[in-house]
Amino acid sequence: MRLVLVGPPGAGKGTQAKIICANQGIPQISTGDMLRAAKAAGKLPKDLVEKMAAGGLVPDEVVLDLVDARVEEPDCKPGFLLDGFPRTAPQATGLDKVLGKHDTELDVVLAIDVPSELLQERAVLRRTDKRTGQIYHLKYNPPPAGAELEHRPDDQEEVVVKRLSTYEAMTAELLPFYEKRGKLKRVSGVGTVEEVTERVFAALGISLDKGRAERA
Ligand code: AP5
Fold it and tell me: What does the entry list as the binding residues for AMP (predicted)?
């Protein structure tokens, strides 16, 4: 399965991506995680570090190069999940070219819809375990004792507002791009993580138990 998860900041893309990928045995390709890893390794230019911290998008060619190189890796052969990419129409056409090189195309683009009044709280109270990458929420999914928690610099309240408006501007062209091709599916991201997972799996036509059983 080759799929894309789209949704506003804090919609739960990362949370659901980890569950789908574990179930399907495919890698999660998160451009946000790749950019943060490049920053941690001192490999992200200063102007891009500042752009991310301010809630803006990095240039299309930067993320396209990252994704192009990543899907070449052998673990992507059976499929992959793109989390937070593509975000713009040029990224979507760039992705077509990347997939064309492998003589393949996307199966589905799944948008997770969450009203903006819920997103602020989800992002601001998010914490990530530095060692495992596991995503927690101080209110809805509290971390265990001993977790090494990180608060993303772009999860400050005023930056989240900017990221939300960037997302709204971007999806105005991205979602119709996939809708016209009949690739777009939408689910509500409101409710508990488990409730959203049920909707996501139903929309993708996969079963939580089936994936586990097939790999057992
Ligand atoms: P990126 O890392 O992709 O961030 P994002 O899209 O803003 O999404 P988030 O990671 O904030 O949220 P999420 O939907 O994954 O939610 P999560 O599961 O963590 O991008 C960061 C930056 O990198 C961008 O701003 C840009 O600068 C740059 N970038 C990345 N990709 C790019 C691209 N393609 N082009 C250009 N620039 C790019 O959940 C959030 C919180 O809510 C967590 O605490 C979680 O525990 C909690 N939660 C999840 N689900 C539920 C639920 N159902 N109920 C209650 N709480 C929940």
Answer: 31, 36, 56-58, 84-87, 91, 152, 163
